[in-house]
Amino acid sequence: MAQNGLRGAAGPVPRTLERYFARQIYGAVLFVLIGFLALFGFFDLIHELGDLATATTTCGRSSCSCCSRAGARLRALSIVVLIGTLYVLAHLASNSEYTVMRGSGFSPARAGLTLVKIGLAFVAATFIIGEWWRRIPRRRRRSCGCAR
């Protein structure tokens, strides 16, 4: 055991680095997800504006229709995760943070294992969101006049 109670590759230093790594990735993925949903929502809203000319469509129905399609847009979650993760990896490399992590005992194998753990969390989240959205009763989504 080294001085100050710090251990080698399996000790608390890599655990802290794993948490930092994961927190950076989760934050970037959340940011990219919000951006993608806002962009797709804007496109849906623009598409629905053409239907506002008819007498049967209201602004409330149009916005409800746009919100009901947000779950279908979560199919792009794997792309969002890829973009967010690549952004974080590029950011860590450009600021030499990954080099400092390597010097602190964070091996490439440990980084890969951390990415696998984070990826499994995103796989589980994608599955849960997909199954949850699919099981919402259609009449509940149609209660405000949404077609989908």
Write a short abstract of this structure.
Helix content is 74%, strand content 0%. The protein is mainly α. It has one domain.
Can you describe this structure?
The chain has 148 residues and is mainly alpha-helical. It has one domain (12-142). Helices cover 74% and strands 0% of the residues. The chain has helices at residues 12-49, 59-68, 70-73, 77-94, 97-103, 108-134, 138-142. The longest helix is centred in the first third of the chain and has 38 residues, at 12-49.
Q: Level of helix content?
A: over 70%
What does the oligomeric state look like here? Answer: single chain
Helix and strand element order: HHHHHHH
Strand count, sense and closure of the main sheet?
none
The total count of helices amounts to 7
Count of structural domains? 1
| N-end to C-end Cα span | 61 Å
Total number of beta strands: 0
Radius of gyration: 22 Å
Beta-strand residue percentage: under 5%
Query: What integer is the average pLDDT?
Result: 77
Shape: elongated
The secondary structure category is mainly alpha
* Unreliable stretches: 1-6
